[in-house]
Design a protein that fits this description.
The structure holds two protein chains of two kinds. Chain A is mostly helical. Chain A has helices at 3-27, 58-66, 68-96, 100-129, and strands spanning 41-42, 49-50. Chain A has a single domain, classed as Up-down Bundle (3 helical TM bundles of succinate and fumarate reductases). Helices cover 70% and strands 3% of the residues of chain A. Chain A has a two-stranded antiparallel ribbon with strand order 1-2. In chain A, α1 (3-27) packs across α3 and α3 packs antiparallel against α4 (100-129). By secondary structure, chain B is an all-alpha fold. Chain B has a single domain (18-104, 114-145), classed as Fumarate reductase/succinate dehydrogenase, transmembrane subunit (3 helical TM bundles of succinate and fumarate reductases, Up-down Bundle), CATH 1.20.1300.10. Chain B is 61% helix and 0% strand. Chain B contains four helices and no strands. Chain B has helices at residues 20-47, 53-64, 72-96, 120-145. In chain B, α1 (20-47) packs across α3. Classes of the chains: A mainly alpha, B mainly alpha. The interface between A and B is large, with 44 and 43 residues.
Chain lengths: 133, 149
C-alpha cells in the first residue's frame, strides 16, 4: 500500500474508533446491564471494593460479552484500534529511526505484535460468544 | 538527512521554537503511545473474563488497589482525559491536515509567522478545548460518583 492510502486509513480508523469507542464508554455507564451503573462501589467501614451491582461485576461483564451485538462492536473496535495503534507506532518509530532497512524491520516486527493483540482480543470475543472456555 | 539535523524525540519538547501546534503534536504522540500500550494491557485484562469469576474478581480488586490505596478511579480518570485529548485533537488534525479551515497559501515573508496557526484553526482549538474540559469533567464525575451529569 502507498503511504497516502495507509494515512487515509489512519484517519478513517481514527473516526471509527471515536464512534465505536463512544459506545464502549456508554457500555460501562448508561447502557450497562448492572442494577447500579457505577464503576467503583466502596464499602464504607473498611473501604473494600465491592464488585456486586457495579458495572465491572463478573455477571454483567459476562452478559455483555455473550451478546452478539456487543461482541460485534468489540470486534470492530478492536480491528480499528489495532490498525490505528500499530500504524501509529510504525509512523513514530520509522520517523525516529530512518532508513529503508529499519522501516522494514519495524513494519514486520509491529505486524507480528499487532496480530498477537488482535488474535488475543478476538479470542475473548469469539470464545465468549461460543459459550466460554 | 545528516545526523546533526536528526534531533529525535527530544525535539518534540522544544518549547522555544514552535507554537501551540507543536505542543499539541507532542502531546498527541505521547497520549497515542500511552493509549496504545494501554490497549495491549486492556486486551489482556478483559481476556480474563474467560478464566472464571475468581480470577476476574481478583484482577478487578487488584487493579483498583495497585500500590496500597484505591488508585483505580484516579488511573481510570487519567486514561479518560488522555483519550479525550487524543480523540478531540484527532478530530482537529483530520480537519486541518486535509487542508480545511486553514487560510490561503501566501508568499513567506520575514519573520515567517505561519498564518496557518491563526484564524479558524485557532478557533477550532478553543472549541475543542472547551469540549475536552466538559467531556473530561462528565467522565471523571461519573468514575468517582457514578452520577451521570
Amino acid at each position: 500500500m502507498r503511504e497516502s492510502q495507509i494515512m487515509f486509513l489512519q484517519y478513517l480508523t481514527g473516526i471509527l474508533v471515536l464512534v465505536f469507542g463512544s459506545f464502549h464508554f456508554l457500555l460501562i455507564s448508561v447502557l450497562s446491564p448492572s442494577p447500579e451503573k457505577i464503576l467503583y462501589i466502596y464499602n464504607g467501614a473498611n473501604a473494600t471494593h465491592v464488585l456486586v451491582g457495579g458495572t465491572l461485576y463478573y455477571t454483567w461483564v459476562k452478559a455483555v460479552y455473550s451478546s452478539l451485538i456487543w461482541g460485534s462492536v468489540f470486534e470492530l473496535l478492536l480491528t480499528f484500534l489495532v490498525y490505528h495503534v500499530f500504524n501509529g507506532f510504525r509512523v513514530i518509530l520509522s520517523e525516529l529511526i530512518p532508513g529503508g532497512r529499519a522501516e522494514k524491520i519495524i513494519t514486520y516486527a509491529l505486524l507480528v505484535v499487532a496480530l498477537v493483540v488482535f488474535i488475543w482480543g478476538s479470542r475473548t470475543v469469539v470464545v465468549s460468544l461460543a459459550g466460554g472456555l | 538527512m545528516t545526523i546533526e539535523n536528526k534531533k529525535g524525540w527530544i525535539s518534540w519538547f522544544n518549547p522555544f521554537k514552535y507554537g501551540t501546534d507543536r505542543w499539541m503534536f507532542a502531546l498527541h504522540r505521547l497520549t497515542g503511545i500511552a493509549l496504545g500500550l494501554y490497549l495491549i494491557a486492556h486486551v489482556w485484562e478483559t481476556s480474563n473474563i474467560l478464566n472464571g469469576q475468581v480470577t476476574w474478581d481478583k484482577i478487578m480488586v487488584d487493579l483498583d488497589y495497585p500500590f496500597g490505596a484505591h488508585y483505580g478511579p484516579f488511573i481510570l480518570s487519567l486514561i479518560l482525559i488522555v483519550a479525550v485529548y487524543h480523540a478531540l485533537n484527532g478530530i482537529r488534525l483530520t480537519i486541518v491536515e486535509n487542508g480545511l479551515m486553514l487560510p490561503k497559501p501566501y508568499r513567506p515573508e520575514f519573520p515567517y509567522k505561519a498564518k496557518s496557526l491563526r484564524g479558524l484553526n485557532n478557533l477550532l482549538k478553543i472549541v475543542l478545548g472547551i469540549f475536552m474540559i466538559l467531556i473530561s469533567a462528565i467522565g471523571v464525575i461519573f468514575i468517582f460518583t457514578g452520577v451521570i451529569v
